[in-house]
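2024-03-11 09:14:02 INFO receiving multi-entity request
2024-03-11 09:14:02 INFO entity count = two
2024-03-11 09:14:03 INFO echoing inputs for audit
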Amino acid sequence: MAESAAEESLITDEMRATIGDKSEPSTLEVDKLQIRLFARAVGHVDPIYFDEEEAKKAGFRSLPCPPGYLGTAIFDPRTSDATFGGRRGGAPPPEPRRPLNRILNGGNEFEYLGDICAGDVLTAVSYVSDIQERKASLGEMLITQSKTEYRNQNNELVAVATGTGIRY
Amino acid sequence: MGITWNEIKEGQEIPVLKKNCSTQQLVQWAAGSGDFYQIHYDKDFAISTGLPGLIVHGALKNAFLGQLVHDWVGRNGRIKQYGCSYRGMDYPNEDILCKGVVKRRYEENGKKLVALEVWTENKEGARTTPGSAIVEFTN
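2024-03-11 09:21:47 INFO inference complete, emitting structure
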C-alpha cells in the first residue's frame, strides 16, 4: 500500500528540536500542612505522614513526602493556572503536523534518589525526553514523555518524575 | 511493621489494598494534589465533556499504588521507583482493588532490591492502572 502525503509523520522537525530543552526552574515547597492533606486524601494510615515524632522515630528529619507528592508549586494569581496551580503562559510547544484536540494523561513514574521531608524547598526543571506517534483505536496518537528533575535546597538531585502525555 | 527481606519470595502476592472513593475523597484529593479539574467533582461539568459522570483522578490511583507498596514495606525499606499507566477510568463509589506481586528479589551493588508488578483492578477485574515498583530493603 502506497503511503500518501497524509501518512507523513505527525512529528515535525520543530517538535523534535525541542527534545531536551530545559524549562525555567520552578520552586516547590514541601510543608507539613500539605503532606497531611495529601496523605489524608489518599487514605494513608501510617502515622509518619501525620505525626512528626513518629516520622523522626522512623529516621526522617520531619514528615516525609508520601509516594507521588513532590512539593506544591507556589500559587500566585498573577502567574498561576487557576485549575492546576502551575505556571501559566509561556510559549506553547510546537503543534503536530495534523491537529489533535484531545488530551489524556498516559501515566506517571517517580524515581527517588533521596529523602524529601517537610521544610525542604525543591527546584524543578522539566524537559521533553521523547516524542513518539502511534495509530491506535483512538486514531492517530502523539505520545510525549516529559521528565522533571527535582533538586533540594542543598542542590542534591532527590527525585525524577516522568510523565506521559497523549494527544489524539 | 512491614515485611522483611528474608520473608520475600518471587511470585509472592502482596496484601490487597481496597479503595472505594467517595466524592468527598475526590474533593480532598483536589486540595491535596492541587488538581482542581472539575471532571472529578462537578457531575454536570463532567457530563458536559462527554464523560458518563465523575471519574477518579489518575494520579490518585497512582498514589494508591504508592500506599500499597509503602504499607507492605513498612519501616524495612524505601520505595526507590514506582509508577503506572492510566489505561481505564474508575468511578466514585466503586471498589478499586490495589494489588501487587513480587517479580524479582535480587542484590545489586550491595543493595537488597525487590521489583514488583502493581496494578489497580475495577469491579470487572480489568487492570485500569498497570504499573511497577522497585523497593530497597534495609531489614
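2024-03-11 09:21:48 INFO post-check: The longest helix of chain B spans residues 58-73.
2024-03-11 09:21:48 INFO post-check: Chain B touches chain A through 36 residues (CB under 8 Å).
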